[in-house]
Structure formats: structure tokens, C-alpha cells
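R.M. (postdoc): so does anyone remember the format we settled on? I'll just put the C-alpha cells first.
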């Protein structure tokens, strides 16, 4: 109850309730998330159940167009799957990969950033040069390299069954330096303050000072970065899937749906690509708008309200 009262009277909640863009973005994101994870309940069809899919139903246009079918509100794709259902299931996979990859980035980046910023010297130089090397490789290059190794060891069938954890691993490994640099910069500023010096004088071990005292005071930039990185991870997954390095066609994400319909966009079946593309843009847009608002609230120097 005490925490709830503090939250109700906080500037964070006050700013949120008085920012229509933030509220609108949050409502849209909440609805999209509920629709994605509630897909098994609310989706009219199950795109994973091959017994209910008929190839003769392929490329049926949306219901408001000529030759549309009432059973397929947004039409069907080239495999005969209901577009609405496939988009809901695909958005769930995109969100899982986006959040999972961001969590992995955060774990790796926070640990290495804390150590680099607090220890300094050769440790700092080594970890930051390692981050620089990592930044020189794009997510696509890391995906190609790890995908080739994975498929050579386990085979293509195993790769398709492990596509979600594979993409989480790839995007997490490729983009952890963003967190490491952000945390390191915050630690360099925090470790010179009096409370850190007092903790050292009291004889507290370095690990306790880093995790119990310095880390909580670096959470604001971490939260801001996390909102941006979730959107970036979703875009990275979509790009990899579009290039054929991500989710297989049997377990589609928004990116693989866009890819599967790209060959049909000029043949008249534009909805196979356009609808997932619009949903992907909307999802990333509302996450980025929320990220901008979080940055304004948590960083008073940038707050414009």
C-alpha cells in the first residue's frame, strides 16, 4: 500500500496522465500485446495447425474487396493461412524475441559496463576495446556467422525448431555494447561521489558497492535505453527474417510474413506484405514514442514540459 501511495503521488505518474501521446502509445501497445499473447484465444484460425489450412484458400483478398471471404477478414497468404491470425501469432513471436534479446543485452552489458567503469585501467581498456570490436560487426554479420555454425552442427531442421532462442542469442550478443557504454559512463560519474567513498572507507567489498550502491543509481539511463533497444531488437529480427536468416515460414514473425508476401506484392496480393508491414511500423512507433517520453521524464535536462 505504501508503494502504491508513493506511486500515485509521483511525478512519473503525473507526467504520464498529462501526456496524451504517452497515454495513447501505452494504450495501443497494451492492446497489441494483449492481442498477441491472447492469439490462441482470439485468433479465428490457428496458422500452426496444418490440418485446418487449405492451399486452395491462398491469396484470398480482404473481406471488403471483390472475391473476399467472410471467414478471412484480412484475406489469406500464399499458403492459405488467415492473415489476421497469422499476424497475431507473428507479433507474439516478434515481441518475445524483442524483449528476450533486450534482456540478454542488458545482462551482458550491465555486468561488463559495471566492471569496466568501476575497475578502470587495463580492465576498462580491454572491455571497451572488445565493445568497439563488437560494434564493428553488424547484427547481420553475426547472424550469418552463427547461423552457419549452428546449421553445420545441428542441421537445418534443428535450426528451425530453435529459431526463437537463436535470434535472441544473436541479437543479444550483437548489441550488448550499447548497454556497456551507457552503464560505464554512469559508473564513472557515480564512483566519484561521496556515498561511494564512504562505502569504501567502511570496508565494503567492491562487488557490494557496485551492485548495491552504484547500480541502482544508474537505472534511469538503463530504462531509457531498454525502451529503445526493444524496438531496435524487433526491427533487427524483422530484418533478419526478411533476409531468410530468422524465423522459418512455418513459424512466422512479422518480418518473415513481410518476406513471404514480397514476391506477390506486384501480382495484386499486396495485403500479404502490407498488413504485417503496417503492424510492424505501428508496434515500433508506439514503443519509440513511449521511449521518448521515458527519456523526457527521467532526464530533467532534456524534459521539455
Amino acid at each position: 500500500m505504501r508503494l502504491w501511495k508513493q506511486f500515485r503521488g509521483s511525478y512519473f505518474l503525473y507526467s504520464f496522465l498529462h501526456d496524451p501521446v504517452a497515454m495513447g502509445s501505452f494504450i495501443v501497445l497494451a492492446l497489441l500485446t494483449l492481442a498477441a499473447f491472447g492469439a490462441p484465444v482470439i485468433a479465428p484460425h490457428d496458422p500452426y495447425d496444418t490440418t485446418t489450412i487449405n492451399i486452395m484458400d491462398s491469396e484470398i483478398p480482404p473481406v471488403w474487396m471483390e472475391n473476399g471471404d467472410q471467414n478471412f477478414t484480412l484475406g489469406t497468404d500464399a499458403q492459405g493461412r488467415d492473415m489476421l491470425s497469422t499476424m497475431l501469432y507473428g507479433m507474439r513471436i516478434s515481441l518475445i524475441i524483442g524483449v528476450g534479446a533486450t534482456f540478454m543485452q542488458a545482462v551482458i552489458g550491465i555486468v561488463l559496463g559495471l566492471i569496466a567503469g568501476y575497475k578502470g585501467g587495463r580492465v576498462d581498456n580491454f572491455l571497451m576495446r572488445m565493445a568497439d570490436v563488437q560494434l564493428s560487426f553488424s547484427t547481420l554479420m553475426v547472424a550469418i556467422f552463427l547461423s552457419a555454425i549452428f546449421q553445420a552442427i545441428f542441421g537445418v531442421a534443428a535450426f528451425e525448431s530453435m529459431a526463437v532462442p537463436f535470434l535472441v542469442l544473436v541479437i543479444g550478443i550483437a548489441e550488448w555494447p550499447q548497454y556497456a557504454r551507457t552503464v560505464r559512463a554512469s559508473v564513472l560519474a557515480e564512483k566519484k561521489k561521496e556515498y561511494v567513498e564512504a562505502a569504501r572507507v567502511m570496508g565494503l567489498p567492491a562487488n557490494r558497492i557496485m551492485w548495491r550502491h552504484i547500480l541502482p543509481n544508474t537505472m534511469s539511463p538503463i530504462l531509457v535505453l531498454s525502451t529503445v533497444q526493444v524496438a531496435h531488437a524487433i526491427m533487427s529480427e524483422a530484418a533478419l527474417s526478411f533476409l531468410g536468416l530468422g524465423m522459418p515460414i512455418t513459424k512466422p514473425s512479422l518480418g518473415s510474413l513481410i518476406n513471404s508476401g514480397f514476391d506477390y506484392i506486384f501480382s495484386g496480393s499486396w495485403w500479404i506484405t502490407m498488413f504485417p508491414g503496417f503492424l510492424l511500423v505501428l508496434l515500433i512507433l508506439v514503443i519509440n514514442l513511449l521511449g521518448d517520453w521515458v527519456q523526457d521524464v527521467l532526464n530533467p535536462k532534456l524534459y521539455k514540459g
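R.M.: ...and that's the designed sequence above, right after the C-alpha cells. Also worth knowing: Residues 99-298 form a domain with the MetI-like fold fold (CATH 1.10.3720.10). The radius of gyration is 23 Å.
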